[in-house]
Here is the input.
Amino acid sequence: MSKTQHNEEIPVLASSGNLFADLGRPDAEEALARVRLAQQIAEIIERKALSQADAAVLMGLDQPKVSALVHGRLSGFSTDRLLRCLMLLGQDVEIVVRDKPSDHPKAHISVVAAAHLDTCSPAA
Here is the structure.
């Protein structure tokens, strides 16, 4: 328990690791996946030093949509649309489907980013 300025105790709960699940959203897995995809898009835009206008051209969006995307306002962005944006930014997207471990109560969705390596291709 934590205390407020008036010494009132308020309960503090540990997160499950998914804020959307903690809030009771029925689409928690999908919502978290969309957030993580958007985070990847924002990181790629930053890494490539793209302006929002340049990123918009590459992704076929207008600049205000790119602004919304990089600021986490994802209404209007489906998982499919985010995957297309990644591809238009020059990213390979790999989807892996596997059996859930028997010790997990339910299946889940995860987004895992490959480490970015700035290596040169070997000379031909």
Remarks:
- The helical segments are 19-22, 28-47, 52-59, 63-70, 79-88.
- The longest strand covers residues 2-3.
- The first helix runs from residue 19 to 22.
